[in-house]
TrEMBL record:
InterPro entries found in the cross-reference section: ANF_lig-bd_rcpt, GABAb_receptor_plant_PBP1, Glu/Gly-bd, Ionotropic_Glu_rcpt, Iontro_rcpt_C, Iontropic_Glu_rcpt_pln, Peripla_BP_I
Location within or outside the cell: Membrane
Protein name: Glutamate receptor
Region (Disordered): 911-932
Membrane topology reported for the UniProt record: Multi-pass membrane protein
Pfam families: ANF_receptor, Lig_chan, Lig_chan-Glu_bd
Sequence ranges assigned to domain Ionotropic glutamate receptor C-terminal in this UniProt record: 454-792
Keywords tagged on the record: Disulfide bond, Glycoprotein, Ion channel, Ion transport, Ligand-gated ion channel, Membrane, Receptor, Signal, Transmembrane, Transmembrane helix, Transport
C-alpha cells in the first residue's frame, strides 16, 4: 500500500489548524472590554466583584450570545480620589473599556469618575444616589447610570418608624470622610420636623482606617451621648468596622439598654447576613431597614449557588457566603450592559452614545427587582423590609413602601409587588427591644434610683393653695403641699401601673420665667407647679395637658348702688314679658265684661261703672281677691284658665324678686381698663409671673405694683395704693371665694393656654402625664382635689358676683299665654254664636206674630235692632191686653197700633209667645232675663 495519503492528511490537519487559529483571532477581535472599580477589602466590594465575574461568565457561556464576548478589568479603590481618578483614566485609555462599573460608596467619588465618562463619552454605572435630582444629574453627567433609587424613600421610612412610635427627639450617627454628603442629613431633618420630631444631636465618626486608635476616638464620642436626653439613635451611614466600635462602646456604657432604640439604615442592615456573631450580639433589639428582594425565584437560587461556590474559594476567611443586595445590583448592572450589547450588534456596540441610550432604556426583571431606568436612575419605588435583630441573626417585622406604608406581607400580582393591609403605624407586639423591654421604649433617658427626675417647684408663690414650700423645723428637709403637689402624686399612681418614676423636688426661689429657663438649660427635668402655657414658652419646653383654665382678669372692690333698688320690682320680668302680660290682662277683662254685663247685674250700669267693675274684677283676680259672682259658664271657663296663669306668674315673680333682693348686687368700683389708662391709676399684680410684662407690653399700663402674697391684696385695696388687681383666673377664683362680697371681676378676660406641668422639650413623660391628667379629669379625681383645696368660704353668700339672677323672659311662659288667650277667644266666639242663634229665633217669632215686619227688611236693620236690644239696661217688658181669644194674634190688640208695644227679651218672648201656653193673662210683668 502506498504511503501517499499521509501527506494529504497532514495537509488537511494543517489547514484545519490554520482556520481554527484564524477563527480564534476573529473571535478575539470581537471581545468588548469593561472596567470595574470596587473596594475588594470590604464585604460590599467582595460581593460586587464576585457578582460581576459571575454575570460576565454567564453571558460569555450563553450559546445565544455569540456576537461579542465581554472581558472585565477589575481595579481596587485606593481611598484616594486622585488615585481613583487616575485609575479610571487608565481603564479608558489603556484598556479601551466601553463601560465602567463604579462600586464606590460615596457620591463625590462617583461624581469624579462620572466626569471621566462625560469626557470620553462612555457609560458609567454607579450604586450610590446622587445629591441632585435625576434631571439635574442627566444634564450634568449625561453618561451616568444610577442603579439605585432616591435616598428620599429610605429617609421617609426612617421618619415613618419614628412617627409610629411617637419618638420626639433622635440622635443621628454617621461615618464621615472627605467625600461625605450632608444633603441626606438635611432632608432627614426637614422630614422629621414635619412629623413633629427633631434631631437633638449629631455624632460624626471618622473612618477607622485613618485612626491609630479608633476605639478610643469612638469611645470619646459615645460618652458625650450620656449627657443627652434622647435615647433614639439612627445610624444613617457607617461601615461595619466603624459600627463595630460604636456598638461595643455604646453597649458598655448602657446606651443599648432599656428605653433605648436603635435604627440601622441599609448601609448596615443590608449586611446583617454577612456580619460575624459578635457584631450581631452587640446590636440586639435594633431595628434595621433592608432593601427588599425576592429569594424565591429560580434565577436567584441559581445565582446563589454560583455565588457561594466562587465566594468561598476566593474569600475563605469570610464566615458567610450568602449574596446581598449589593451583589444583586452588580449582577443586574452587567445584565443591563449585556442586553444593550446584544441588541446593538457587533458594529453598533462600539458607538458609545447608542450603547448608553440602550442601557438607559433598560426595562427588565433582575435579581434585585424590577430594573426600569428613567432619567438615568431606577424609577421603580423601593420596598424596604423592616427587621429586628434577635438572637444570632434577625427576624422580619414587615415591609414599608411610600405608597402603602407598613404591612406584614407582600403579594405578587402581574409581576409587581403590592402591599397588603397598609398602615401608618408599626406593630410593636413582636419587637424584641433592647434590654428585653416588654413595652415600646420611651426613647428618653428615664430616671432611675441613682439618677432620679429632678423637679423644680416654685418656692415663692402668691397663692399658696396651689404650691407651698415649708422648711421642716430643726432639719434641712422641706415640706411640699398644695393642689399641684397632690395632683402630681395622683398622676404618679397612674404612671406606676407601667413604670416607676423616681423623683426629687427642688425649690426655686426665682421668678416663674426664670424657673422655665432652668428647664431649658437642663438644670431641672420638669416643673410641678402652677405654670401658665404661653406661646413663647412652648417653643422651648414641653407642656402637659392643662389641669386648670388660665386667663387674666381684673379684680376691683365693689360698691353698693342703692339708687337702682327703687325700680327693682320691675326686674323680675323683661320688657316684652310686661307688655304681653298687660295685653293678656286687658284682653281677658274685655272678654269677661262682654259675656257678663247682659246677664249679671254686677256688671251693669253706666259705661264707666261697667269698665270700673271689669277692671276691678280682673286686677283683683291677680291676688285672688275678686268678689263678683260669675253667671255665664263661658266666663267661668275663661276665669279658671286666667287664674291658673295668674298663679304661675305671681309665683314666678315672687321667687325671682326674692332672689334679686336677697343676692347682693355687687357693682364694680372700676368699670373697665380704659378708665385705668386715662387716669394712670396704680394696679397690682404678681411681679414674679409673666403678668407684669403682659400688662406693660400688651395692655400698656405704666403704674404697676408688685404684690407677692394674696393676703396683701386686701390691704393694698383698703389703703388706696391700688384701684385694681390683675389675677389669673385660677387665682381670681380663689381670691373671690375668700373675699366674695367685697370684690368683683370687671372688664374682659384675656385668655391663655391654661395651667400645666413643664418637661424638657421632646420628653415622652409629658405625653404620659397628659394622659394621666385626662384620666383624673374623667374619673372625677381632679374635681375632688379642687373642692378640697378651693372650698367656698363660710362667709360667702355668692362666690361669683357676676352671676346675677336673670329676668324672666317670654320664652318661659308663652305656652300659658297662648292657652289663656286661645281659651278666651274660643269662649267668646261660642258665646257670640249662641247669642246670634237665639236672637234670630226670638226675633223671627216676634216680628212674624206681633209686628209682621216686611219680609224684605235688610240684614243690617235686623242686626241693629238686636244690638239695641241687648244694650238695654232694663230688659223687663210688659204685654198688655193679651187674651186667650186673641192668642192667635199673639197679643196684638190692633194690628195698626203695633207701635205701642215694647220689645221683649228673647227668653221672656219664648214664654209669652209659646204656642203651647195655656195661661194667657191680660197683663204680664216679666222679670229679669234668665242667664245662659
Amino acid at each position: 500500500m502506498s504511503p501517499k495519503p499521509f501527506p494529504k492528511l497532514i495537509f488537511i490537519l494543517k489547514a484545519y489548524i490554520l482556520i481554527s487559529l484564524l477563527t480564534l483571532k476573529a473571535t478575539a477581535n470581537e471581545t468588548i472590554e469593561i472596567g470595574a472599580i470596587v473596594d475588594v477589602n470590604s464585604r460590599i466590594g467582595k460581593e460586587q466583584k464576585t457578582a460581576i465575574a459571575i454575570a460576565v461568565e454567564n453571558y460569555n457561556h450563553d450559546k445565544i450570545n455569540h456576537k461579542q464576548l465581554i472581558t472585565v478589568h477589575f481595579r481596587n479603590t485606593s481611598k484616594d480620589a486622585i488615585q481613583d481618578l487616575s485609575t479610571a483614566e487608565d481603564l479608558v485609555e489603556k484598556n479601551n473599556v466601553k463601560m465602567i462599573v463604579v462600586g464606590m460608596q460615596t457620591w463625590e467619588e462617583t461624581a469624579l469618575v462620572a466626569d471621566i465618562g462625560k469626557r470620553h463619552q462612555i457609560p458609567i454605572i454607579s450604586f450610590v444616589t446622587a445629591s441632585y435630582t435625576p434631571e439635574l444629574v442627566q444634564l450634568k453627567w449625561p453618561f451616568l447610570v444610577q442603579m439605585c433609587t432616591s435616598s428620599l424613600e429610605q429617609i421617609n421610612c426612617i421618619s415613618a418608624i419614628v412617627r409610629s412610635y411617637q419618638w420626639r427627639r433622635i440622635i443621628i450617627i454617621y461615618e464621615d470622610d472627605m467625600y461625605s454628603d450632608s444633603s441626606m442629613l438635611a432632608v432627614l431633618s426637614e422630614t422629621l420636623k414635619g412629623d413633629g420630631a427633631e434631631i437633638e444631636h449629631q455624632v460624626i465618626l471618622p473612618q477607622t482606617s485613618s485612626l491609630s486608635d479608633p476605639r478610643e476616638v469612638v469611645r470619646r464620642e459615645v460618652v458625650k451621648l450620656l449627657r443627652k436626653q434622647s435615647r433614639v439613635f439612627v445610624v444613617l451611614r457607617s461601615s461595619v468596622s466603624t459600627a463595630s466600635h460604636l456598638f461595643k462602646e455604646a453597649k458598655g456604657i448602657g446606651l443599648m439598654g432599656r428605653d433605648s432604640a436603635w435604627i440601622l439604615s441599609d448601609s448596615l442592615a443590608d449586611l446583617l447576613d454577612s456580619v460575624d456573631s459578635p457584631f450581631v450580639s452587640s446590636i440586639q433589639g435594633a431595628l434595621g431597614i433592608k432593601n427588599q428582594y425576592s429569594e424565591a425565584t429560580k434565577s436567584f437560587q441559581d445565582f446563589k449557588g454560583q455565588f457561594q461556590k466562587i465566594f468561598r474559594s476566593e474569600y475563605p476567611m469570610e464566615d458567610h457566603s450568602e449574596p446581598g443586595i449589593h451583589a444583586l445590583k452588580a449582577y443586574d448592572s452587567i445584565t443591563a450592559f449585556a442586553m444593550a450589547v446584544n441588541n446593538l450588534g457587533t458594529k453598533s456596540s462600539n458607538d458609545s452614545k447608542l450603547l448608553k441610550n440602550r442601557i438607559l432604556s433598560s426595562n427588565f426583571t433582575g435579581l434585585s427587582g424590577q430594573v426600569r431606568i428613567v432619567d438615568g436612575a431606577l424609577s421603580h419605588p423601593s420596598t424596604f423590609r423592616i427587621v429586628n435583630v434577635v438572637g444570632h441573626r434577625y427576624k422580619g417585622l414587615g415591609f414599608w413602601s411610600a405608597k402603602f406604608g407598613f404591612s406584614e406581607v407582600l403579594e405578587a400580582e402581574n409581576g409587581e409587588r403590592i402591599q397588603v393591609n397598609g398602615s401608618h403605624t408599626m406593630k410593636s407586639s413582636e419587637v424584641k427591644w433592647p434590654g428585653e423591654l416588654n413595652r415600646v421604649p420611651k426613647g428618653w433617658a428615664m430616671p432611675t434610683d441613682s439618677k432620679p427626675l429632678i423637679i423644680g417647684v416654685p418656692g415663692r408663690t402668691s397663692f399658696e393653695k396651689f404650691v407651698k414650700v415649708e422648711k421642716v423645723a430643726n432639719s434641712n428637709e422641706r415640706k411640699y403641699s398644695g393642689f399641684c403637689i397632690d395632683l402630681f402624686k395622683e398622676v404618679l399612681k397612674i404612671l406606676e401601673q407601667n413604670y416607676t418614676l423616681p423623683y426629687e423636688f427642688e425649690p426655686y426661689d426665682g421668678s416663674y420665667p426664670d424657673l422655665v429657663q432652668q428647664v431649658i438649660n437642663r438644670r431641672y427635668d420638669a416643673i410641678v407647679g402652677d405654670m401658665t402655657i404661653l406661646a413663647e414658652r412652648i417653643k422651648y419646653v414641653e407642656f402637659t395637658q392643662p389641669f386648670a383654665e388660665s386667663g387674666l382678669t381684673m379684680v376691683v372692690p365693689v360698691k353698693f348702688d342703692g339708687s337702682k333698688k327703687a325700680w327693682m320690682f320691675l326686674k323680675p320680668f323683661t320688657i316684652s314679658m310686661w307688655i304681653v302680660t298687660g295685653s293678656i290682662l286687658v284682653y281677658t277683662m274685655l272678654v269677661v265684661w262682654f259675656m257678663e254685663h247682659q246677664s249679671n247685674p254686677e256688671f251693669r250700669g253706666r259705661w264707666k261703672d261697667q269698665l270700673g267693675t271689669a277692671m276691678w274684677f280682673t286686677f283683683s283676680s291677680l291676688f285672688f281677691a275678686h268678689r263678683e259672682n260669675i253667671k255665664s259658664n263661658y266666663t267661668k271657663i275663661v276665669v279658671v284658665v286666667w287664674l291658673f296663669l295668674v298663679f304661675v306668674l305671681t309665683s314666678s315673680y315672687t321667687a325671682s324678686l326674692t332672689s334679686m333682693l336677697t343676692v347682693p348686687r355687687l357693682e364694680p368700683s372700676v368699670k373697665d381698663i380704659n378708665w385705668i389708662k386715662r387716669t394712670n391709676t396704680t394696679v397690682g399684680c404678681d411681679g414674679d409671673s409673666f403678668v407684669k410684662d403682659y400688662l406693660r407690653q400688651v395692655l400698656e399700663l405704666q403704674n404697676i405694683k408688685n404684690i407677692s402674697n394674696q393676703e396683701d391684696y386686701p390691704k393694698e385695696f383698703e389703703s388706696g395704693n391700688i384701684k385694681a388687681a390683675f389675677l389669673e383666673i385660677p387665682y381670681q377664683k380663689v381670691f373671690l371665694r375668700e373675699h366674695c362680697n367685697q370684690y368683683v371681676v370687671a372688664g374682659p378676660n384675656y385668655r391663655f393656654g391654661g395651667l400645666a406641668f413643664v418637661f424638657q422639650k421632646g420628653s415622652p413623660l409629658a405625653r404620659d402625664v397628659s394622659e394621666a391628667i385626662l384620666t383624673l379629669t374623667q374619673d372625677g379625681t381632679l374635681n375632688s382635689l379642687e373642692e378640697r383645696w378651693f372650698a367656698l368660704s363660710r362667709n360667702c353668700d355668692n362666690v361669683d358676683a357676676s352671676n346675677e339672677t336673670e329676668s324672666l323672659t317670654l320664652g318661659s311662659f308663652w305656652g300659658l299665654y297662648l292657652v289663656s288667650g286661645a281659651t278666651s277667644t274660643v269662649c267668646l266666639l261660642f258665646f257670640i254664636w249662641r247669642l246670634c242663634r237665639k236672637s234670630r229665633q226670638h226675633s223671627q217669632a216676634y216680628y212674624d206674630n206681633v209686628v209682621h215686619p216686611s219680609t224684605d227688611q235688610c240684614f243690617w236693620t235686623k242686626t241693629a235692632g238686636i244690638i239695641r236690644y241687648y244694650q238695654n239696661d232694663n230688659p223687663t217688658v210688659s204685654l198688655r191686653r193679651v187674651t186667650s181669644g186673641r192668642a192667635a194674634g199673639l197679643g196684638v190688640e190692633e194690628r195698626g197700633s203695633s207701635s205701642r208695644w215694647h220689645l221683649v227679651s228673647p227668653s221672656d218672648a219664648a214664654q209669652v209667645f209659646d204656642g203651647s201656653s195655656q195661661h194667657p193673662q191680660s197683663s204680664l210683668e216679666m222679670g229679669n232675663l234668665r242667664s245662659e
